[in-house]
Write a structure and sequence with these properties.
This is Glutamate--tRNA ligase. Helices cover 45% and strands 9% of the residues. It is built from 19 helices and eleven strands.
């Protein structure tokens, strides 16, 4: 039991590589629980059945554990308020949705995806923010019953007040007021019977006795919907805290299109978890110069949730490098350093698989560094001359790299077979031979036109490292392409 009654949670969606933003929000919740003698809970929000996968869920759990975060309840450790995976809780939500409908606070919507898209297109053309127009709001009870009985697909939406505004207090932003006419008639229950994030979020937080909800500021605009759901169900909402988003140095939102954002990228490059948590934790505390090197316990001791900044948290990679270097030099013993190096080299079987692929390709062991070194490098430092031996024009190379990068993102299972299948499919779609497609990829991934087998190498390196190397290769090749007329 908690000593304070405080219960907080992190609720990631397993729809992609775990983001450093997830670690940032998780760390805040972890420190908040630690500061107040409360409980830190992990819940998997997989209501998006088309994008959620067991592979990504495993990656989320592994990444948060690597960060040094420990939860007292979750899908892997159980707890008194489980299950802790929303897809396992599907039958829990419908009675709550029905209660909202029966009380007159929700309604069944039969609008087709085609009608909704036409509606949104018309609103955008008129310069209006896209939101539901209330088409099904006034259907008679008889008509609704008839259409439901006929098996017509439908969703359940929530009603929104037509006048006034939603006023609430946020732990970071203070008193907030959002007009009701800016709030959409949110879908609560999808046609497949699964709740939307908003509905499941409220029900789960209530049933799991969550006292404080700390999440990214992008969810601030959703608070009125959540408060309404709590009110419609006659429940007490938790206290809300919306943390500033992490941003690039130019203040743009941190995204994988600009910079590496996957936790797996930072593990692969040899960052240590204590340094990453130290770096992220500095956003939540006030310190004097020279006090930057802090352990998790020291972060918790200095943690002050009453004095948080609304300014964007700048993800300064140079500062992270500096902290990581200090941790390696000042905090690790010789034995611990050697252990960390070996653990890092063996991560995802990188060393083992690299050696297996190398055995038939060398005549002496001294050739191994040149052949396998790319598997362990932080940066290949590609030069445009690296692509000189490839017969394709710079324009064709750039087209290939810019096509392959987003197409590989669509792969759910990242392994040799799926990578090869996708690259063959790309070659077919582009009307090119496979060898034309893979030639620049060899250079982009390994820094050389001759290396270990490409598909195997990409699988070993992992999605996040390959993504970054393809992006940097495209930037390098772009210098060879003349300006457009």
């Amino acid at each position: 039991m908690t000593t304070s009654g405080v219960r907080v949670r992190i609720a990631p969606s397993p729809t992609g590589e775990p983001h450093v933003g997830t670690a940032y929000i998780a760390l805040f919740n972890y420190l908040f629980a630690k500061k107040h003698g409360g409980e830190f809970i992990l819940r998997i929000e997989d209501t998006d059945a088309t994008r959620s996968t067991p592979e990504f869920e495993t990656k989320v759990l592994d990444a948060l554990k690597w960060c040094g975060l420990k939860w007292s309840e979750g899908p892997d450790v159980g707890g008194p308020y489980g299950p802790y995976r929303q897809s396992d809780r599907k039958d829990i939500y419908k009675p709550y949705v029905e209660k909202i409908v029966e009380a007159g606070h929700g309604f069944r919507c039969f609008c087709t995806p085609e009608r909704l898209e036409q509606m949104r297109a018309a609103q955008r053309a008129a310069g209006l923010p896209p939101k539901y127009d209330g088409h099904c709001l006034n259907l008679t009870a008889e008509e609704v019953s008839t259409r439901v009985a006929a098996g017509e697909p439908h969703v359940v939406r929530m009603k929104i007040p037509t006048e006034g505004s939603c006023k609430f207090h946020d732990g970071v932003y203070g008193d907030v007021e959002i007009p009701w006419d800016a709030v959409d008639m949110q879908v609560l229950l999808k046609a497949d019977g699964m709740p939307t994030y908003h509905m499941a979020n409220v029900v789960d937080d209530h049933l799991m006795k969550i006292t404080h909800v700390a999440r990214g500021e992008e969810w601030l605009a959703s608070v009125p919907k959540h408060i309404l759901i709590y009110q419609y169900l006659g429940l007490e909402p938790p206290q809300f805290m919306h943390l500033s988003l992490m941003r690039n140095a130019d203040k743009s939102k941190l995204s994988k299109r600009k910079n590496p954002t996957s936790i797996s990228y930072y593990t692969a490059l040899g960052y240590i978890p204590e340094a990453l948590m130290n770096f992220l934790g500095l956003f939540f505390i006030q310190i004097a110069e020279g006090e930057e090197l802090l352990s998790m316990d020291e972060l918790a001791e200095k943690f002050d949730p009453e004095n948080l900044s609304k300014a964007g948290a700048i993800f300064d990679i140079q500062k992270l490098d500096w902290l990581n270097g200090r941790w390696i030099r000042e905090k690790l013993s010789e034995e611990e350093f050697q252990h960390r190096v070996l653990t890092w080299a063996m991560e995802n079987n990188r060393l083992r698989e690299g050696l297996k692929l190398s055995q038939s390709r060398i005549s002496k062991l001294g050739e191994l560094p040149d052949l396998t070194g790319f598997l362990f490098k932080s940066d290949l430092n590609l030069d445009p001359s690296a692509f000189a031996k490839i017969k394709s024009t710079p324009e064709e190379l750039l087209e290939i790299l810019n096509t392959v990068q987003p197409d590989l993102e669509k792969i759910l299972e990242w392994d040799v077979e799926t990578i090869e299948a996708e690259l063959r499919a790309i070659a077919d779609r582009m009307g090119k031979k496979l060898k034309v497609i893979v030639a620049p990829l060899f250079v982009a991934v390994s820094g050389s036109s001759r290396s270990l087998p490409l598909f195997d190498s990409m699988a070993i390196l992992g999605r996040s490292v390959v993504r970054q190397r393809l992006k940097l290769a495209a930037q390098t090749v772009a210098t060879l392409v003349g300006p457009k007329n």
